[in-house]
Structure prediction request, 193 residues.
Amino acid sequence: MKKLLLMISLLLGLGACTPMVAQNPGRGFTPVNAVTEGEDKHLLLFGHDVVAYFTEGKHRLGSPMFKVVYKGVTFRFATAENKASFENQPLRYLPQYGGFCANGIVYGIPWGGDADTWKIIDGRLYIFGGKASRDAFMLDPEKNIQLANKYWSEEVIGSNPLIQRTKRLIFRVPHYKSGSELAAEVAKAQGAK
Prediction:
């Protein structure tokens, strides 16, 4: 137990710098899947255009020429039109769970989130940590959205993502499934189709 506590302390000490600053902008929209790039201290989704998912049906990198800072988080857009759309209705385009992998949030774990792996469900943008995560989430999207909403609102929102992630990797939720367990479920479901 002593070694575990020492390891957690080291992890928190070493990893708390850049990601913690980028992923915790405060101002009511935290934590977020953000990085620091140049003068953009909280750049969401590595600069991908959140409006393009809806208007073009694909992920697209935004430009530093077209950017908006919303609640301390920088959003970039591919076009002036997309920027204007976001400015008019920011809540419509915000990715769920701060742009972290939606399947990770099902387990209370804020991490990952690849801008090129996504799904729009009921008019909301969900980002995933890869195809396997999206496939697992889509086995039961309604249940997974309920679980993710629960953990997001009760544990993750307003938290330090590194501390929350560490907590839930050690103290797992009752319904936790490993990547291999989820992959087996996906394979079984795809084989049944």
Observations:
- Strands lie at 34-37, 40-44, 63-70, 73-77, 114-121, 124-128.
- The longest helix spans residues 141-156.
- DSSP finds ten helices and six strands in the chain.
